Amino acid sequence: MSKEWPLWEIFIRGQHGLSHRHVGSLHAPDAEMALRNARDVYTRRNEGMSIWVVESNKITAFDPDMAEQNFAAPKSKVYRHPSFFEIPDEVGAM
Amino acid sequence: MDPLVTFCLRMGDTTLILGQQTAAWCGHAPVLEEDIAFANMGLDLIGQTQLWYEIAAQAEGQGRTPDDLAFFRTERQFLNAQLVERPNVDFAHALMRQYLFDAWHLPIQEALCESGHQAIRELAQKSVKEVRYHIDRSRDLIVRLGDGSEESHAMMQGALDALWPYAADLMAIDAVEQALVGIGMLPPLDRVACAFEAETAVTLDRATLAIPGNGHARTGGRTGIHTETMGYILAEMQQIPRSFPDARW
């Protein structure tokens, strides 16, 4: 058995109405201590009001080597962006 | 000395010396996360010290600053409880010292939230939130390590055996506190010792640690009597300001 504590990914919500954002990772023996450690490591400067922790190996991700086949196609499909509408002046900044 | 000044120094000296001892772990704790947590806690305690020294200096009225009180008093003038000057030794000792301190610090800060002295009441209302987190953390680690592996259990029991006799000094009450209770500046403090006994009985039992049978023993810190480690702590803490008294950041 490895003596190294497992790695956890830390997500923090800065204020009401925003979503949790990934801020980094840390080591901890279990979820409860990962939360405590996250409080000490990532909220020292009043960054957050909510913390989520997820064990890193519970996250399933695309293989970065497959980036081309996964993500290249939309690059040529600029019409999927809503950037071709004329916006009336009265609308102001959007 | 005005009992109010003495009481504020007893509180502030205790948080200062523990903050200094805790800060010494910066860069040396067993894991990075614990290193940051300990440094955070030390900074909380030093911040609280500053507030205690401001109240003391104002009550004293001799124009001394919090820095004067921290750096230009000698060992016998420090009124901290002996527990906090006990050496770092290893992480088990540092954690156990922190936990026993927290088990006293939370109930006294909760009591001080009802102080008749406005500045003390405001200090307590600010500090109590920090202290609740401190004990939450130290209690959790005491239980995990006490009820952990054979090695961690032995280390925590060794630390408890070494430090338990110093816990009484935290709760020592004399004419100073009685005078302040008498004029309504402090709430009755006997419930602090009751809360300490209740907290430690439950937590140390969960941690499968045995409270040493010889009872509370060592006192004197709050009247300026210290153990052999105190001079070394002050020498390290005061060396720069005493060498360069007018130095500024």
TrEMBL record, chain A:
Q: Which domain of life is it from?
A: Bacteria
InterPro entries this protein is in? PaaB (IPR009359), PaaB_sf (IPR038693)
Q: Which Pfam families match?
A: PaaB
The record's Gene3D superfamilies line, in alphabetical order, gives: Phenylacetic acid degradation B (3.10.20.520)
NCBIfam families, per database record: PA_CoA_Oxy2 (TIGR02157)
Under what name is this protein listed? Phenylacetate-CoA oxygenase, PaaH subunit
Its ancestry begins with: Bacteria, Pseudomonadati, Pseudomonadota, Alphaproteobacteria, Rhodobacterales
Automatic annotation (TrEMBL), chain B:
Pfam assignment, any one: PaaA_PaaC
The GO annotation for biological process reads: phenylacetate catabolic process
Q: Which InterPro entries match?
A: Aromatic_CoA_ox/epox, Ferritin-like, Ferritin-like_SF, PaaA_PaaC, PaaC
What GO cellular-component annotations does this UniProt entry give? Answer: cytosol
The entry's protein name is: Phenylacetate-CoA oxygenase, PaaI subunit
Q: Source species, please?
A: Limimaricola cinnabarinus LL-001
